[in-house]
User: Fold this.
Amino acid sequence: MKLILNADDFGLTEAVNLGIVECFKAGVVKATTLMMNQPGTQHAIELYKQGLIPEVGLHFTVTAGKPLSDPKDVPSLVDEDGHFLSKQTLFNKSDVCVNEVVLELKAQYQAAVDAGLKINHIDSHHFAGVYRPLKLGFIKAANDIGLPVRRVDNIIHGQEMLNVPTPDAFDMGFFDDGVNIDHLKAMLLAYKQKMPSGTLELMCHPSLANTEELKLLSGYGDKRIDEVKILTSPELKQWLIEQNIECVGFQHLH
Assistant:
């Protein structure tokens, strides 16, 4: 079985960025996705240019920060101050404009390309591309861009309209209470039994520290440090080798 461990939230803060770098160095995490509108975005780009992040995708963000498009062009996605709506508000809206989602995703993708990044896959922060108000727009933009994406059927079924590669399965179980090595091993063994020659993607959210800045931006903090400990542990790396589970990045799907 092939395993893609994708580090979400690259660019959120410097502590998050450095945690992701440590996971890459350990050799188990081989993919990450970059947020283009966060406090640590420029720092993340610099780490990429230093060669510390060999493979990067786009973490499409519509539930945090401000759009890269003119807010006037994406009115169904923003509040009166031009900030993105909260996920609770956005995911329950009935009037999200598909074309605005496409416009903003392409703006974030283009900003990453213009910054000198070779983007090789796309996913979405808070699963924005999975929820019904945004799913059609996410799929349309992903098809236009033509890169592999994270599956969009883990919460709401169906991704038949996607014309780009995805992993064979995606599981969000390595998160919060699921962040322990025994749970991770059990999950991987179950998938290996089910699809021995398949490709599984798991998300992860590493950070070196739960800084004050991170606390302001995310409700998920201390567990990020636990994730780094597990994902950089020699025990996990050796176990994966013994189980013949190969860690790959999204380049594997190209």
In short: The longest helix spans residues 98-114. The chain has nine helices and seven strands. The beta strands are 2-10, 31-34, 56-60, 119-124, 169-171, 199-204, 246-247. The longest strand covers residues 2-10.
